[in-house]
């Protein structure tokens, strides 16, 4: 550890070294003692003994001293907590928004009143510095509750048509224990939910202290419950069938497990996972500011930050100068005891994390990376303890483990680029997408680069800035969902129409063609079309062209009266791959202006209208609908296209009011490639209702139409072909709904997927989506009334067709 010795004031001024400045641990110690250094779970407004009586120690990573014993939660404890949350739910939801707002406000006030206790306890339990817990964590926690007191107050006017989800299970990590609690608990309570929270094994204390403070502040018993324990407790919580929502922050690996564990249970899910965020420095950047930015990006919180700027990408012409400045700055960083107010870097959370960091650093060295650590690094090793020095690697290959894996420690790898295009390519060369930071004095360049970065948060000339008014969350394998801001509130609400939907009747959804496939040219394959007209052989629609299915198989489409209406291609895995590839290539659609997209949607409506008679005829023949019903479906489809054409340039973003000199732009961006799977009923309207909003927001779509009655969708090719829809924007694969849905759910290049079909199919889609952590929206076997605009259209569809990127742009000199 870096200690100081100085003989005189003069020497101090010369060396700028300063002696120890310890914060007193008294407040935290008194609190621990008051509890006899032994804690149960906090359930139903009080501490309760764990069912099985098992406890484990929580220690201060700075010196290994034991702070107290906490309970290891088992299934029984989890069940007790969920029951308490269920019991508290009706009364909590029965409060007026004003009453709930007052509770959240009281929580904010209590955090402020007990700021010292919380800051010291956090520094002790986590090993991070008091400077950070005091100046960053705790103030942000209070800010979060203040902000969400506001959402509680405004719930009805700001979120009309939405309701609370119910009991929320929340699992949080050890890097920002209290802040992650606030990010999860505040929106959940503001929306009218109750909570069971599991803090990380290494850092349970501030959650327990917070729960106790909340009870003191008058929060009704059972509204917030805390069950402590290790990963097994988290798994038991996530598995509990009393939950309506699971929110998780932690590793991508566990995020995947949770995606699978919650599949098919009708549980709303948000995942905030790992990152390997780029920190881009262009040649015109203010390098001194950028150096301070790197300090905040990777040495803040020991680099144990999911959005840490851990990949430094510097324009070649300034790389040497940047490195020189960075090395000089590293020399002046101070690392040591958490409670020393002058420390920049504290202890690593636990031996297991220190081992992981050490292993990855050794691997990077072995792979030829040039490693720099400050001269004082060796004294850390001599002192022992869980300390790792700030580390800078250069000459690192973009594909190396150090450049790809989340190290979660104070280690940054540096690479160079020559052009902005190369910078974007390198920045996006990761499976993650949590955050990015862009340094340049050229605002045009910054605002050109920001939308091109695959990341949920982009900081321009700043880094690791957070606020309750701005959403935070990832792209790609960094997870989905947002925490903070208006966008974060939706994670704890559901549309009221979704709550009341009936289940499909037993045979309402066709189980698929299964063995009914016919080879091309087989008897009946070219049977007469409706009314004896020349049959148009339906094909797939891929990349703007009609395409034969890979297997050359088709299946008969029968009318409601059992008559043979024609054949539909039986698409397979290969066809899905081709369709996704075409959608990938159709990226121009995502870059088209909203005005252009609106024009194309209007044009589709116009051309559909022109062929209304043909579609009415088709619908009648397939579904047996009356003329009037078929006409109503076609008219509703035209109207729906108009609605999304209208909304294309009106569903826009926001400038969040964050408390800095900052324009915080919340931009809805398309997912890119989206899959939609339509149900059988209303074969034209349901298809249009799912495809149009996705298109309106700039997604390229791979759509699976009604399996039983796909011909309304295949007839649409003529409409699409004549409506200026660019190739790849819409791709249609007909066939077995469940089989195609499973392939799409697994596909790594599909970023989001909507599925409307059976309960089993919904479960498969959620489970299979875990690989690339695509965002899914499934109906859980519930039937929508597509003719009802309240269910079949609206902003919920657009919200689900986009993800918010928050771009922070500071202003002022
Ligand atoms: P985990 O993802 O294991 O832990 C996060 C939380 O999930 C903890 O509360 C943990 O409990 C709990 N948990 C673990 N397993 C399960 C499960 N099967 N079901 C439900 N909950 C579970 O992260 P680690 O703490 O193990 O850290 C490992 C790595 O993850 C780090 O090196 C880092 O790379 C990354 N990480 C990323 C974070 C982020 O913010 N993105 C935060 C923390 C870690 P418990 O603590 O008791 O194990």
User: What radius of gyration results from the CA coordinates?
Assistant: 28 Å
Structural class: alpha/beta
- How many helices in DSSP terms? 30
> Can you list the ligands bound to this structure?
NADPH dihydro-nicotinamide-adenine-dinucleotide phosphate
Strand order of the largest sheet: 13-14-15-12-11-16-17-32-26-25
Report on the biggest sheet: 10 strands, mixed
Number of strands: 32
Distance between the termini: 37 Å
Mean pLDDT across residues: 95
> In which range does the helix fraction lie?
40-55%
- Beta-strand percent range: 15-25%
Can you tell me the residue ranges where pLDDT is under 50 for at least 5 consecutive residues?
Answer: 518-530
Shape: globular
Write the layout of secondary structure elements.
Elements: H1 9-15, H2 26-34, E1 41-43, E2 46-48, E3 55-59, E4 66-71, H3 75-94, H4 97-113, H5 115-126, H6 130-158, E5 162-164, E6 167-171, H7 177-190, E7 194-198, H8 205-216, E8 224-226, H9 231-239, E9 245-249, H10 252-262, E10 268-272, E11 277-281, H11 287-299, E12 309-315, H12 316-331, H13 351-366, E13 370-372, H14 377-383, E14 391-394, H15 401-404, E15 411-417, H16 420-427, E16 435-439, H17 443-449, E17 457-460, E18 479-480, H18 485-489, E19 493-495, H19 496-499, E20 518-519, E21 540-542, E22 545-547, E23 553-558, E24 564-569, H20 573-585, H21 588-591, H22 594-610, H23 612-623, H24 627-648, E25 654-656, E26 662-670, E27 673-677, H25 685-696, E28 700-704, H26 711-721, E29 730-732, H27 737-746, E30 752-755, H28 759-768, E31 775-778, H29 789-792, H30 795-800, E32 802-810
Parallel strand pairs: 6-7, 6-9, 7-8, 9-10, 11-12, 11-16, 12-15, 14-15, 16-17, 17-32, 27-28, 27-30, 28-29, 30-31
Antiparallel strand pairs: 1-2, 3-4, 5-19, 10-18, 13-14, 20-23, 21-22, 23-24, 25-26, 26-32
Bound molecules: NADPH dihydro-nicotinamide-adenine-dinucleotide phosphate.
